[in-house]
Description:
- The chain is built from one helix and 29 strands.
- By secondary structure, it is mainly beta.
- It has a domain at 245-363: 7 Propeller (Methylamine Dehydrogenase, Chain H), CATH 2.130.10.
- The longest helix is centred in the N-terminal third of the chain and has 14 residues, at 2-15.
Amino acid sequence: xxxxxxxxxxxxxxxxPKLLSWKVAYFHxxxxxxxxxxxxxxxxxxxxxxxxxxxxxxKVKPVSVRSIDRGKTWILTALKDQARSAFFLSARLGWMVTxxxxxxxxxxxxxxxxxxxxxxxxxxxxRDEALxxxxxxxxxxxxxxxxxxxWTAIKPNSDPKSDPDRSVYAWVEFATDSFGIIxxxxxxxxxxxxxxxxxxxxxATNRRQWPSLTLMLxxxxxxxxxxxxxxxxxxxxxxxxxxxxxxxxTLIEFDETFDxxxxxxxxxxxxxxxxxxxxxxxxxxxxxxxxxxxxxYLAGVQTQGTIRLPVPGKVxxxxxxxxxxxxxxxxxxxxxxNRVFLATAPDGRMMAATDTGMxxxxx
Length: 363
């Protein structure tokens, strides 16, 4: 009997997920200085690169914070131009999208050289040193075959019809060398409210979340041919994460007039289905990730009541293996933010950056 009980208890213990927590790897804690991160990327497993904006007294400057020793030490460097996002192909080779164009680095972001002066871009993705894609505004979807020096417009079949001046492609993601998705939205012009909802909460009942036209381009041949699609959705599709199988996740974010701040959906291209797997009125998800360990990760913040105020909330990061049962990982008690961003290394390690100057490591 003792032997049977021991086997049962051992099985129960083995079935429990490993207890992990998000600990501080970097924290900008200086007097009279604020730092807000808006992107974090891995270049290989040793190089970690985060983009942000530093405010010191009355001075505002774009900066990067990087590590070349797996996050043991960090280097804060001022950038010439305001950066929007970064993409790393390897441990050293990366591209950075700025307000004035695209820059390229061969040393984990220590130095940057101008690749092109293409403006209006938000994000890039590269397959190799030469072939890549870029998205931005107004309604920009571009391709390059020379490492980002020159860009040509993608001309999709069934080009989504929308006013370019109110349209943006904001995300590009490839699951394999063949299958990729570009996503964005068109926002019809609406009469702007006189005050934000947190200043005039009584008017909340008279406001509504208006549908926006979701714009999508899809390729199954590595970017030679793109097919366009549209869908009318509440909210904006701000993130897509794809696994090598083509399955993945998408994040829909809503404005403060909607009951829920965000919803996460599972994409199953093999069945041509999309199904909601998560939403919580008290959890504003701002990034999603498919971990190398088989877990799905959702990162965001605890909202402050029914009226979403523009103040930092407690960082919350959840994970699940079945899209049904969600486990919340412990996060350093000092971590609060408005938005949280995730990054996954090739070896499976994960990090998160906040718009309040903190980088967290899952361990």
